[in-house]
Amino acid sequence: MTEWDIKKLRILRTLADRGTVTATAEALHMTPSAVSQQLTNLARQLGVPLLEAQGRRVRLTDAAHLVLRHAEAVFAQLERADAELAGYLAGEAGEVRIGAFSTAVPVLVVPAVAALRRSHPGVEVRVRETEAAESYELLSAGAVDLALSLAAHAPTARDPRFTRLTLMEDPLDVALPPDHPLAKVPALRLADLSGDPWIYGGSGPWQEIARNACEAAGFVPEQAHSASGWTAILAMVEAGMGVALVPRMVSSRASGVTVRVLTHDRPTRHVIAATRRGSESAPAVARALAALREAAAAR
Q1: Crossing angle of helices 62-90 and 283-297, rounded to 10°
Q2: In terms of CATH architecture, what is 6-72?
Q3: CA angle at residue 105 from 100 to 106, to 5 degrees?
Q4: Which helix (H) or strand (E) is 260 found in, with range?
Q5: Alpha helices in 149-251 (DSSP H)
Q6: DSSP label at 162?
Q7: Which of 118, 131, 282, 284 has the least C-beta neighbours within 10 A?
Q8: pLDDT by residue (tens digit) across 130-172?
Q9: Which ranges in the chain are annotated with CATH 3.40.190.10?
């Protein structure tokens, strides 16, 4: 029977994720030469070539991709074994590390942590504010146990590394200056604001979400200003510099602006939680997921 080395398989998986030997070495706190040596040894053990030169870089062979498809099932089973062992050894105690995007921290994570402190004081939660891409890198590397992100920014549901759970729908409201002529118009529609200057991110996911919502309403928004933080966006709206789409997680706490619910258009984003596949049954992770679901249901 072929000898399978879990440590070396993890190195191969990290190379597939990161793309280069140098990035793999940095992620695993190894030297590039050590990474190369381990992968050479793995290829020798398995009896198939795993890497081939592509200019100054290397790429995975078809055999390497075949190995990884089977390795993902092995990793998931090991996560389940770890989860069962953790339940046996720790019972109600344990640590959960959560990576979450900024608006989810006060709205979902903080209430969930507060509830866990009351119901399961032996479960310790560590929170890390992260962007979606970083969350999934940390999750894959084992640096966090739960990642919260928007569904639009997450890996696909077919990604064998992760288990995804939809936590909530987060409707998008529109924020208007208090003296906007349409601030009190009944049944406001996005299309009614097609001639207004808009404020949203200059690049990245939120720009895409805002533009897609407006385009679905039949117009392309004129971007007058860009900002990445909600404090800045709402300050500009309050000053009359434009209008903005704002997620309910933010608009419910907004002041100084008029917030209107778009009952006709109903633009929505979805918030999900993800774990490494197989680890969702670890007692502390399961407790944290349950608390997050309860916090989301209370919205």
Answers
A1: 90
A2: Orthogonal Bundle (1.10)
A3: 170
A4: strand 258-260
A5: 205-216, 230-238, 248-251
A6: E
A7: 118
A8: 988 889 999 999 999 999 999 988 888 889 999 999 999 999 9
A9: 93-168+270-297, 170-268
